[in-house]
Amino acid sequence: MTTSPDVQPGVAVTESRQTPAAPSGPAAPGGRPSRRDRAGNGLTPGWLPWLLQAPALVVLFGLLVYPLVRVAVLSFQDFGLRELVTGESSWVGLDNFTEVLTDPLLWKVALPNTAVFAAVNVFLTVAVGTAVALLLAKLGPWARGILTSAIMVAWAMPAVTGTYVWVYLFDARDGFVMQTLGSLGLVDPETTNWFTERLPFFAIATANVVHHGFPFVAVTILAGLMTVPKEMLEAAALDGAGAWRRFRYVTMPLLKPVFAVVTILSTIWDFKVFTQIYLMPGGSGTNREVLNLGTWSYITAISQNRYGLGAAIAVLLTLLLLVITAVYLRTLFKQEEL
What we know:
The protein is mainly alpha-helical. Helices cover 67% and strands 1% of the residues.
């Protein structure tokens, strides 16, 4: 057998079998493929996600952004019932905010009621929800499912219905709690009315808010507890750590993002509590000692037809929520950097 003089034995002929590469378009700066290349390769164009999100963004703008902008605009106007009918309004600048900030009702009643009530409710809601979550984590699947479904009924109950239930329980004459305590000789139903005094009023409202809010916290933290590695808890137990130390030094650091979420959401919800206050006897404005920023804003705008002043109170409440949330997130992020 003869071989070609141009080809040496034992050397594979590969160059003649190679397929020439197809010319490609110009690459984008930095080595990234151009938009035409991405489309040709089947990659998602940059505008497609925005197009798919456009319906949801339109709905969010109509339900969230526009009302916020409208309230902010109203807060700088003298807008009452006459302006509502005629459609005309006059700009007053910061006069509404000046009136609110110089009103003694803000500093002596509305702001303390709002801040203290929210702080107590956030603490109790997260504490009760965490305790319930730890209890559910110790149960078997069947018992956990039944109890989780049971506590979610309280969360699914409308706030209006739940408030009327609590009002009935503590009613001055026919309430179950009042009758029970009266039969034991602890209170006199004829002379006792807890809804007329500031502290008992907010104690009942706190029980209502915590009862309605703890199921969400419990289920959320329970989901986080299911992700905690059992090996870490077993190692801590072998080192002699008790239940409280395991929760404090193992579980809590791992679930810090979960606790941050439930705390922020509870803060927002409890600062703007309206239904649980307004529907209780005296909460609609007849007892000004139990007003908070939410009910004060509503009564000022709707009952007194001073929509601009009511909008200014609502703007102050929104700014207060933003400041508290920003401070909490800043503190949380600093702790994670340490």
